[in-house]
Design brief:
With 329 residues, this protein is an all-alpha fold. Among the domains are: 1-45, no CATH class; 81-163, no CATH class; 180-275, no CATH class. It contains eleven helices and two strands; from the N terminus they run ββααααααααααα. The protein has helices spanning 45-50, 66-110, 115-148, 165-196, 202-207, 213-220, 224-246, 252-258, 264-274, 279-298, 304-323, and strands at 22-23, 30-31. It has a two-stranded antiparallel ribbon. A hairpin with a 6-residue loop joins strand 1 (22-23) and strand 2. The protein is globular, with a radius of gyration of 24 Å.
Length: 329
């Protein structure tokens, strides 16, 4: 929500001690920063309550825990599991549609012999795929947030986030730029560690790309110790500092779904604010959710649909808990 300057020094009707920084886009009443939740909400609390938007969530950043989040999410899931599973199916169908769009542009551009057209078709298809999948992901998260706030699962919410596609694509691009230095560090660090073992040389690594497949195994055998060191160093750097620095990005999609009028830079800023002092439990929540997803796959894929629904509830609940009170922290 764009904040407005009030030269008259208008005060917030709900919090008279605070100066108004904007107006509700629904009723026009003044709102302070607390009412707009740091500028993330376009409606005042009264309008959000009246329309069933943004009702109170049981957990906040002071009282939440992994076990508490699991309990709240499980209770919500038991209440609305059927519609949540239908939402997951719609999400999967949307993801498939995104892949079809990407392949379609690749096929169309591949008909020509122009490299420019082929590359352009690839990027247009990729962006289209990201846009469709992103909108469906935000829709599923928005529906999960409704369920966690005590409301019924409304499948119409699955299609309510398409207006945020520009912001979604912008945050994905900005996140990629944030990751580039880390990727460079991982590559340089792993390569340097491998070369330091003495079992690898730069010339040998460059020569690998020109070797036929029949000779590749023989060429790689003496390099195994150095390649193993490279792999270990890459994994270590990915975990720390990589995982530690990029953990806030797991809140990116939930924050976009939560916010009525998201901004690209502001969304990422909030994610890092929410993650302040919370990285370890956030990582624990992700690991637990990933474990549940893996178990569902091993069980012949039958529980995958409900497992995905519960995982999205966890991510939505994590964002709601960490954002509750973050601006005042």
């Amino acid at each position: 929500m764009a904040e407005t300057e009030f030269t008259s020094g208008a005060s917030c009707p709900l919090h008279p001690a605070f100066e108004a920084v904007g107006t509700c886009s629904r009723c026009g009443n003044f709102m302070c920063r607390a009412c707009s939740e740091g500028g993330s909400q376009a409606w005042c609390p009264a309008c959000r309550q009246r329309e069933g938007v943004g009702q109170a969530f049981a957990l906040n950043r002071e009282n939440w825990s992994i076990s508490g989040l699991m309990d709240v999410s499980w209770e919500a899931f038991k209440r609305e599991w059927v519609m949540l599973c239908v939402g997951v199916l719609i999400f999967l169908a949307g993801s498939f549609a995104g892949q079809v769009v990407s392949q379609l542009f690749s096929v169309i551009s591949g008909v020509t012999e122009s490299v420019v057209v082929i590359v352009l078709g690839f990027f247009i298809g990729m962006i289209g795929s990201y846009a469709i999948q992103g909108a469906m992901t935000l829709g599923l998260l928005r529906m999960c947030m409704d369920v966690l706030s005590g409301r019924r699962a409304d499948l119409a919410r699955m299609f309510s986030q398409f207006s945020k596609i520009p912001q979604y694509l912008g945050t994905v691009f900005l996140s990629f730029l944030l990751m580039l230095p880390l990727l460079v560090l991982i590559v340089v660090g792993a390569l340097g560690a491998g070369l330091a073992t003495g079992t690898l040389s730069w010339s040998e690594l460059v020569a690998l790309k020109d070797l036929p497949a029949s000779e590749l195994d023989a060429a790689l055998t003496p390099m195994v110790p150095g390649l193993a060191v490279m792999g270990l160093v890459a994994i270590a750097l990915y975990i720390f500092p990589g995982g530690w620095l990029l953990t806030p990005l797991i809140l990116m999609q939930p924050e976009l779904a939560r916010t009525e009028a998201p901004g690209v830079v502001e969304t990422l800023r909030r994610c890092f604010v929410y993650a302040r002092g919370q990285r370890l439990p956030m990582i624990g929540t992700m690991l637990l959710g990933g474990l549940l997803a893996m178990v569902s796959v091993f069980l012949c894929c039958v529980p995958v649909i409900p497992a995905l629904g519960f995982l999205q509830l966890l991510m939505a609940g994590l964002a709601l808990a960490l954002s509750n009170g973050a601006e005042e922290a």
